[in-house]
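Database export, one record per block. Field names are fixed; values are copied verbatim from the stored entry.
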Amino acid sequence: ATPGPTPTHGSAAPRARGTCKPSHPKGGPQSGDPLVIPSTRWIFIDDKAVLPDTPFAEIDVKGFLEINEAFLKKDVTLKAKNMRASGRLDVDYRNDSDHTAIIELHGTDNDKSITPYAEDVWLGNKGMAIAGQLNLFGSPVTSWRKLDRTANIGDTEIHVQGLTQRWKAQDKLAIGSTEYKWDQVEHVTISGVSQEGNVTKVTLTEGLKYRHFAGVETLTDGNGNTRTVELRAPVGLLTRNVVVKGVQTSPQDVFGAHVSVVAISGKDADQGTMWYKYGHIQAKYAHFENMGKQSLPWAALNFEYHLKEGDSEADAQQEVEMNVVQGCSFTLLNYGTILRAIKNVRLDNNVYYRGYKQTVEAWNDAQGNYITNNMVVGTWRDPEETLDWLITYASFYLQSKQAEVSGNIASGSQDTGFLVVADDCGAVPTVFDNEVVGAIIGAWMWPEHGTGGSGPTGNQCKVMQRWTIWKAAHVGLLIVDTGADIEVNNVVVADSHIGISLNYVHYTSIQYTTVKNAILMGTTAASADSTCDTCLAFTKGDVIPNGCNSVFAGPEFTPLTGERVRRVGFQTIQKTNRAKTCIMDVGLNAGEGGMDCRPPTVPERMCSPPWERRCGVRGGMYAHVDFDNTVFAHFKESECGGQKAYAIAHNPTQPDYTPDMAFSKTKWIDTDERAKFRLDTRAGAQGCQAGHKTPAVCDAVQLAYGHDLDGTLLGQGTPGLFTPKEGVAVVDNTPVCDDLTDMGLKFCPDLKFRWFSVYSMDADSGSRTFVPMVVSRTLPGTTEVKEFAAQGMLADMCAKR
């Protein structure tokens, strides 16, 4: 090791050779000893250095430690149990792709922790704490691509789109799942690489265990308009030539290493003022191997700036000093990256493999970060987690508003692909062009109270836009516990059990939803070789999940509905008076603070899942859904042994209310008439009010109606109003109404409805109902009187307090 003068960060001070005079009595730090780089030293490791094989107890970089290809034309491994850097630590092999620089972190959970910088900053052990500067620069590579064509079980070749940089024999790849079972991700080894035009052919050392789909879905409507949707598995390169590695004591060892980028502060004794020091990282094309500590709070890479909130100096420094993690790869034993009390971090073009719990997580105090073009393959629940309660996880679990979340893909998630804070309607997009495949839930919008907006309803308005979600075993696009108006724009959902499920709560009185430019597909070529058991949903007693527990196909519900449903494009929305998630449900003032729970979206009680199940009674006064330029494709009356598929279906657990719907510029492609609507309940003679003292068709069905604004929805060549065939609000045999038997509807081109509701304004109205409300009507030109009774709301024992 050769010392030199210590430069300031970013300076170009020349390295100087000299004689290192250690103070250790044996002539220098020995194996197992701590190693300290003083603040006055710049040490770089050259080709003459002989590093000990036994790890240092701790390496403390107060000055500058450099591992640079310019002085090392060979592989190098630096071993330690703990490391910390309040100075600067550089590993730079960006121009030497033939050699590898490795930092190994050793130890067990019983070893000594990293020496703390302050009493309240616990740093753990088998880790690296950065309060100064960490630079990791590997040789640039192509981080990830998508398959050009489907790869089947047993194939020893895969074809990826585009040309790849520095993919070579013995490199490791991660391939995403394109099936409903989240664990069908693969870790494979390259044996050879060749180019075929604009496609890279990769030969593997062993055949594939699973099918990985890649294809294009071409949709042409009756007017000859064509839209295409690409559905392709992601493939990511894990190998890099700069590595931070947690050394396992055995293959079963899940106590990996971690890196923490932290902030520290103190008080200047002379000036009496506070000082702040912020750790920073620049990591480009590095590999983090065996990282994170399973069942503990440590991620592979942790950003934790816990200083005084609102400090102007702290905010200014974060704006100037951007943390960058770009082109890196992670093989994980726990979380991947956690952002806490920090902003202005850029996570770009990284590959994460086999994360547990949240792979990329931003806490509610970590706003304004850039999370772009990342690939996450495999996000699984903690195997030590309780089976008694549903603990919610996501590949991207983002509790706060970020500067940008775009171009990312999540594949193979045992829970959710993305949980994100949505954009405001009309704002410049910050969350867009993200994709999910092979998850239980695709994208979940962070719950919003929804009040205080400037729109026509007085609500906030949030937009989920430019998503591609396919092979979601439960729900593609999910909203739970939200009072904001919602716009769903340019969203593609395919091959999912339920495409879109929007579930609102009573924080606002009026609710508007807009679905526009969306493509909802039932079963495409992506499911051609899949098992018919395509549904997996969480419920009490099954938090893995192992079975289909949805309201359309679960064993709790199919005896009532009399059929098993494989696909639903859009589930009719509901608005109730009870929230489900821990953060939003607090008595009757839900959403005003929530409980202290982690993660915040765990269910408040376990009788409420699955997520689309009704919770509470009707909330709010009125709700409406507009569909504009929506494509429904590939819904079939019977598939997979008689299972059903429906483009639009009523939620069979919701007896109280179905908001009215309006449709314009609707396109139907390859969809059976009997697979377009399911607006009745299929609940037998008791209706969806089974057990009610006055058994009848429930209000959610008999009072439901919608509008075909331009004749494109029902194909009748004229606008008009429609109701379910059980909709007794339409008088039987009315001349202006036609039976659309195959769709299960009545169509009334000239009939106009007047909608009204009657409410009690008393303070205790939440526990009382008007039933039955009887409406009478004299048929025009006759003395005959027709009447029907609204059944009122059915109690929900799960939500009862």
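Remark 1: The first strand starts at residue 2 and ends at 4.
Remark 2: Confidence is low (pLDDT under 50) at residues 2-27, 587-592, 689-694.
End of record.
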